[in-house]
Amino acid sequence: MAMLWNLARGKLSRRGLEFYAKAAVILGLLPFFLIKPLRAQSLSGGIALAGAPGTIQAPVEAHLCGSPTQQAEAKLPEKPQPQEKTTGKKPASDGQNEPKQPKRILYIIPNYRAVSADTQLPALTAKQKFSLATQDSFDYSSFTLVALLAEAGQLQRSYPEFGDGLGAYGRYYWHSFVDQAVGNYMTEAIVPVVTREDPRYYTLGHGGVLRRTGYAISRLLVTRTDSGGSSFNFSEIVGNGAAAGIAGLYYPSQERTWTKTGQRWLAQVAIDGAANVFKEFWPDISNKLTKHHP
């Protein structure tokens, strides 16, 4: 206003006129230098330009002629979106990655009675229990196991009455085979059908080595019933006792004493306990072997 007043009165000098002319040019070009960066910002999703269709002019006006407070408010970033809180806990396992019990151990030894950890199965019928005993007794690998037991018995001369030579090996063989078959049918079929017990081994699969070992051994005394409860393991204790007593019918008279019968009974229970421990940890052993040797 002072410039226009002095210009109207003719009191503005040449130098003053040049100064005001330069100032007018600078002020005229200033919006261009401001709008150019704003246009680039609008193209990248920033502030919209004035006059563009479908845009809001308020932010540009705030940059051009707004107050410092308004400019500061216009430059404030958008409120950050709240992030989901993480608890650091891993999602619960659905059990699909847990090691499973195979039908055979090392592709040879039958493992039909072992049930994978955290698995619920329906009760076995009487027919299925007898089928399970038959599978364990007449599996092709059973004949190989009996051959090894017969060889070990002959080397140790466990029964001197059997004599020596090939005939003695045959006697060791068929006695061992009948021992195994009678034991299987008594513990997996006959007694379980009468007592309504489940002859299968249910793997624990969780916890430390001592806990799982103790659990496996305890299954000699505790078993699952057909109704899903727990019971004293009559199938294991009474079944193996009956098998040891029956063995007295086909062993020599010297082997029919109470002491010999008790030894056979305890030996078979101990073998079953070791088998339970082996079955408990075999899925983990197999899983580690598979990872190291794909």
Topology:
Layout (H helix, E strand, L loop, with lengths): L1 H8 L4 H30 L14 H8 L2 H8 L28 E2 L3 E2 L3 E2 L10 H13 L1 H17 L8 H31 L5 E2 L6 H10 L3 E3 L5 E3 L1 H14 L10 H35 L2
What keyword list fits this structure?
294 residues, mainly alpha, 2 domains, two-stranded antiparallel ribbon, two-stranded parallel sheet, 10 helices, 6 strands, disordered N terminus
Shape estimate = globular
Strand order of the largest sheet: 1-2
Most strands sheet: 2 strands, antiparallel
Q: Number of folding domains?
A: 2
Mean pLDDT equals: 78
Question: What distance separates the N and C termini?
Answer: 90 Å
Instruction: Give the amount of beta strand, in percent.
Output: under 5%
Class from secondary-structure proportions = mainly alpha
The rounded Rg comes to: 45 Å
Low-confidence stretches: 1-12, 27-66, 84-94
Share of helix, binned? 55-70%
What is the chain-wise order of helices and strands? HHHHEEEHHHEHEEHH
Oligomer: single chain
Q: Helix count? A: 10
Number of strands: 6
Describe this structure in words.
The chain has 294 residues and is mainly alpha-helical. The protein folds into two domains: 72 residues, no CATH class; 189 residues, no CATH class. It is built from ten helices and six strands. Helix 8 runs antiparallel to helix 10 and helix 9 packs across helix 10. The N terminus is likely disordered.
Please outline what is shown here.
The chain is mainly α and 294 residues long. The chain has ten helices and six strands. The chain folds into two domains: 2-73, no CATH class; 104-292, no CATH class.
